[in-house]
Amino acid sequence: MALHLVADFDLRKDVLPWLRAQQAVSAATGAAGGGGADVLENNYESLHVLNVERNGNIIYTYKHLYAFEKDLQVVSCSVNSERTLLAASLVQSTKEGRKNELQPGSKCLTLLVEIYPVNNVKVLKAVDSYIWVQFLYPHVESQPLPENHLLLISEEKYIEQFYIQVTQEDGNRVVIKNSGHLPRDRIAEDFVWAQWDMSEQRLYYIDLKKSRSILKCIQFYADGSFKLMFEAPLDIALSDSGLKLVNFGYDYRQDQEELSKYPTLCVFTNHTGSLCVCYSLKCASWEQITYSVFYFHKGHSKTFTAALGNAGSPVTKGITFLNLDYYVAVYLPGHFLHLLNIQHPDLICHSLFLSGNNEMTDILPHSHLQSLSGSLVLDWCSGTLYRALLSQSYLLQFLWNSRLDYEKMAILHCVLSCGPDPRFLEGQIIRWISENASACYSFDPIQEFIIASSYWSVYSETSNVDKLLPYSSVLTWDTEIPGITLVTEEIALPLMKVYSFKGYWEKLNSNLEYVKYAKPQLCYKNSVVRREWHNLISEEKTGKRKSTAYVRNILENSIKVISNLEARNLEPRLTPLLQEEDKHQRLLMGLMVSELKDHLFRHLQGVEKKKIEQMVLDYISKLLDLICRILESSWRKHNLHSCVLHFNGHGSAAEFAVFHIMTRILEATSSLCLPLPPGFHTLHMILGVHCLPLHNLLHYIDNGVLLLTETAVTRLMKDLDNTEKNEKLKFSIIVRLPPLIGKKICRLWDHPMSSNIISRNHVTRLLQNYKKQPWNSMIDKSSFSVEFLPLNYFIEILTDIESSSQAVYAFEGHDNVDAEFVEEAALKHTTMLLGL
Fold first, then answer.
1. Which of 488, 518, 653, 675 is the most buried (most CB within 10 A)?
2. Rounded average pLDDT over 784-795
3. Taking the chain, what is the end-to-end CA distance rounded to the nearest angstrom?
């Protein structure tokens, strides 16, 4: 199952055993209220969860709370953080479950009770309308507070805050001061919907202005102050005829069927500064259902229309929205489960859409569920408090079994963003990639994995990273998802009503500012790095290098990255990576460090320079580490050994499999201009020589798939003997080498062909500035051992040039290459060509 619920509290398991024990004691002693388990079971329906407080306290009732009246039913209840005060709203009920008047002119009694120990009872309200109560909880819970703050929410559409001062008498006895007159403030009025966020102490409510729904939020603080934080217009239709409350306790006014007739509306936030409003009308069709999500932190809304797979199955329950931090779960029992990516909602492929009446979707209770703070979910009917978790094992299994690209993409991101053990989950995804690197058509799984995993590795370092670093390698997605219709619209941004922000509000405001002003996109791209890297390589070939200080600084950046990578990974590596100079990859690595630092410095104002520098090193180290791990996973799977590193072997199926995954890694990184671990190209070349026929090998080299590193070619010249096949291979390699490397390699191969190439290079250098001079036609034949006049004439010219002081200086350090060497090489080569 993609989503499973772990019970944190269960009335039947956590409360019933204790109640049965109390009943048994009462029955044995003959005390009043006895009657054994039968009485308990008959009255189980009166056992309800009333409220869940911010500190984890769960308030429930069995029969009646206090013996004020036998038929009193608790509508709402809350205790303060010290558990010294209890607020409760009660109504009188009949056996039919309907409410009668408690007394003329009132049907709801709201009480404030001193419970440490039980002392006085104060009547706060006695009115002919329902009242809900909620104590405010300070964010810092240390010493008992001298003042408590209590919200009263009236069915008459107003909210008040009471200020209750307490004092201690006779030791620990807590007494309400000035109970005859408690100060109060009117918080809100004329609203049609309200939601309480117990964790963050926020009140969301909607009022109607000229038939327009305006969402507002009030933040409460520990000192009793409160502020209206924002106003946001909502393009939804809400009636002002009724009042709908969310997270203020179980609503006894309606049964489940009546509740399903109301539109579902809830607000979700998380620590990253996201603000989502989820909205769904009651289902009017058995064929499809529509819901909307307003991503205020992104500046747009998305309306999803989902086809119901079981058109003949009636929809008896409404949609349930659950907050899963980076995701919102949208659940319709027996029909579908959607996991919406609220952190990156731009592309539909980043959200997962499961449908069908099977184990994937029929996983949650069919009763009314309410999402509390974080991932807590409360089933009001059963009195069970769950913690909703994404099943990583199920998602990984689904990743292996899925044949659809958009599901693979969504699962990959879901696993990486929600996993408790990132390295383990990365290892599982790497196993999948090694088997399915070529199984995706709409995206490159290696690219997507490297980019997404590197992003999440530094995401928590500082705010706004999600705007500055790429989250996905996919920029557009045109593939339709069967059964899902999506309409995206721009929405008006919330209007912030305060000007000093901290914590969540600072992040939300930053997100809103980004939506307003960040055009074009601020996300980092490697285009500048690619251009500069190609320039440096071109300069190296032509010998026209920029200042050595600039290049030295770039290479020092790469040294820091590799040191950081080795410090993070203490396990020995199976593959010979990071052990070679590979100057080109080090240049690319160092350039990426430099450019990414500049990018973050520009846009992360107020963040320490050292923190940004370390984040950049961690990010690029993660990129390289993931590439190493993908390769090592394949290496370990196919049980390759160090003998692979020699050229005098033959390619096996295992080597070809590793060569294939290395080629896919190279393809993925090249298009994004990402650095590879030094030594990668050497290993790739060795496996290529093992696995490919010569014409394929040369084709790979000519097209830049295989790079001829000095390390690889040196080893090739030393490992292979001079059989006809090997001579052909060596010559094909030598003629394709860059001049600087070619001159070094030729000297390692004791062969006429190598001598021929060295001679050609030597002659080219000698004659590049040669000016023809008149020569004596008579040549002293006695100075030459071979009667081959054209060669004799040419060697005499070379000898004369070499004798000049200018030529000696020009060719100083070229070993023993001279006119005599050229003559000998020419004769050997001619002899070889003539077969003599």
1. 675
2. 59
3. 78
Question: What pLDDT is attached to residue 100?
Answer: 47
Reported confidence tier of residue 180, pLDDT bands at 50, 70, 90: confident
Contact 113, 92 (CB under 8 A): no
Report how far residue 683's alpha carbon sits from residue 634's, in angstroms, rounded to the nearest whole number. Answer: 14
Distance CA 563, CA 590 (A): 13
Give the separation between CA 623 and CA 677, rounded to whole angstroms.
9
Contacts of 631 (CB under 8 A, 6+ apart): 575, 577, 658, 661, 662, 665, 680
pTM for the predicted model, two decimal places? 0.84
- What is the predicted pLDDT for the residue at 789? 54
Residues facing residue 269 across a β-bridge: 275
Please, are residues 155 and 142 in contact by the beta-carbon 8 Å criterion? no
pLDDT at 131: 92
The total of other beta-carbon atoms located within 10 Å of residue 25's CB is 11
**pLDDT at position 612, please?**
93
Question: ∠ CA 668-672-674 to the nearest 5 degrees?
Answer: 85
Q: Are 134 and 78 in contact (CB under 8 A)?
A: yes
Amino acid found at 219:
Q
Beta bridge partners of 280: 264
**Those residues with Cβ within 8 angstroms of residue 232's Cβ, 6 or more apart along the chain or in another chain:** 214, 215, 216, 277, 296, 492, 493, 494, 495
Average pLDDT over residues 405-423: 89
**Are the beta carbons of 223 and 243 closer than 8 angstroms?**
no
Alpha-carbon distance of 833 to 836, in angstroms, equals: 8
Question: Lowest-confidence range among 262-271, 360-369, 483-492, 726-735?
Answer: 360-369
Other Cβ atoms closer than 10 A to 318: 22
Is residue 65 predicted with pLDDT exceeding 50? Answer: no
Spacing of C-alpha 389 from chain mean position = 16
Cα(485)–Cα(803) distance, rounded to whole angstroms?
A: 84
- Bridge partners, residue 4, by sequence: 389
User: What would the DSSP string read from start to end of 252-286?
Assistant: TTS-HHHHTTSPEEEEEE-TTS-EEEEEEPPP--S
More confident residue, 484 or 576: 484
Rounded Cα gap, residues 436 and 463, in angstroms: 34
CB-CB contact of 302 with 488 (8 Å): yes
Task: Give the Å distances, CA to CA, from 382 to 49, 376, 378.
Answer: 8, 15, 9
- The angle subtended at Cα 741 by Cα 706 and Cα 555, nearest 5°, is 80
Distant-in-sequence, close-in-space partners of 354: CB < 8 Å, separation ≥ 6: 2, 336, 337, 338, 339, 360, 361
The encoded tokens of residue 43 equal 């009255």
Confidence at residue 730, expressed as pLDDT on a 0 to 100 scale: 77
Q: Alpha-carbon torsion 698, 700, 704, 706, what sign?
A: negative
Handedness of CA 62, 67, 70, 74 (dihedral sign): negative
Which backbone phi and psi does 763 adopt, to 5 degrees?
Answer: -65, -40
